[in-house]
Design a protein that fits this description.
The complex is a heterodimer of chains A (210) and B (99). In chain A, 66% of the residues lie in helices and 0% in strands. Chain A has 210 residues and is mainly α. Chain B is elongated, with a radius of gyration of 23 Å. The chains are: A mainly alpha (210), B mainly alpha (99). Chains A and B meet through helix 2, helix 3, helix 5, helix 6 and helix 7 of A and helix 2, helix 3, helix 5 and helix 6 of B.
């Protein structure tokens, strides 16, 4: 990607307060709705809730539009708004704080827990993901993550942002982001290693490859 | 050497590999994401590689973690349909116009 000059990014990616009209906001919506929906879907794992989150995100963005100074990219700003909205929606629904994940719970205690019960040898991740059960198990594992860990995993490993960017979105230092990311990955790994998918996936893959 | 002592607090004899046992494996496990993300110093990477070479369980564990990260990275996400995109836009602009 060619780096844009700051002044250009401000005009394209970061509108100045004087342009905060419904028309310029409409442009911002059209430029970013797809990214925000993808993010929302990954966080919520469900279409209707993801749409609610997108709506909430853009409405909050409109309310804060005049205060956006263009210091960050618009997408980073929107990610932050969506993250806050998601935390609020979850808290309202569940009413309980996230549980903490400790490293100790991820230490394998028996031989069978070291490997992932998914044969990936000879398959690219994309090919492995063609298996519907694997996709569902992966989604379920991500959905089971406490929100603050899921948020980091989605932003880092699915949206592909850097630890620094995620830190600025969630207002945490990089060390905390890396610690949460590691625990989140270990959690998903453990869930997938406990699935016992091997037989089904082998069967489906062989059928598909024939 | 000094780096290695700092990276492994409590380690008195910084040798490349100190055998196995739960404690050493847990120290490796703590650093595996940083190892996969290439965030560790060369010394620490070397130490981890030395452990992995001798400890099949940790090697298998690392593979499984790498695969997990790859699956997350490659998981496609459904996109918004044109109809839903337009409907959402209408709802949002309606609220925005009334503010």
């Amino acid at each position: 990607m060619i780096p844009q000059k700051k002044s250009r990014r401000r005009s394209v990616d970061g509108p100045s307060p004087s342009t905060s009209t419904p028309e310029s906001f409409d442009q911002l919506y059209r430029d970013h709705v797809d990214i925000m929906y993808r993010f929302a879907y990954r966080l919520c794992g469900e279409v209707e809730t993801a749409k609610d989150l997108v709506q909430e995100t853009f409405l909050n963005a409109y309310r804060a539009y005049d205060r956006f100074r263009g210091d960050a990219q618009v997408s980073t700003w929107l990610y932050a708004i969506a993250s806050h909205a998601c935390f609020r929606m979850r808290r309202k629904r569940k009413g309980e704080p996230d549980r903490e994940l400790s490293l100790e719970e991820f230490v394998p205690t028996s031989e069978g827990e070291f490997a992932l019960q998914i044969p990936m040898e000879g398959l690219s991740p994309q090919e492995a993901l063609e298996n519907k059960e694997l996709r569902q198990d992966l989604d379920r594992a991500i959905a089971k993550l406490p929100s603050k860990y899921r948020m980091v995993l989605v932003l880092r490993d699915m949206e592909g942002l850097s630890a620094k960017e995620v830190g600025s979105i969630l207002e945490l230092n990089e060390r905390a982001i890396k610690s949460r990311l590691h625990r989140a990955r270990l959690f998903v790994r453990k869930e997938l290693s406990a699935r016992g998918l091997a037989g089904d996936l082998n069967r489906n893959t062989h059928t598909r490859l024939k | 050497m000094a780096d290695r002592v700092r990276t492994y607090p409590g380690t008195r004899k910084p040798t490349p590999h100190q055998g196995h046992g739960k404690r050493n494996c847990v120290k490796i496990l703590e650093r595996l994401s940083a190892y996969l993300d290439d965030e560790l110093s060369r010394d620490v990477c070397q130490e981890i590689r030395a452990h992995l070479g001798d400890c099949p369980n940790c090697e298998i564990f690392l593979d499984s973690l790498r695969h997990t990260v790859q699956l997350c990275r490659q998981r496609p996400s459904p996109s918004l349909s044109a109809k839903d995109r337009a409907a959402l836009r209408r709802q949002i602009l309606k609220v925005v116009a009334s503010v």
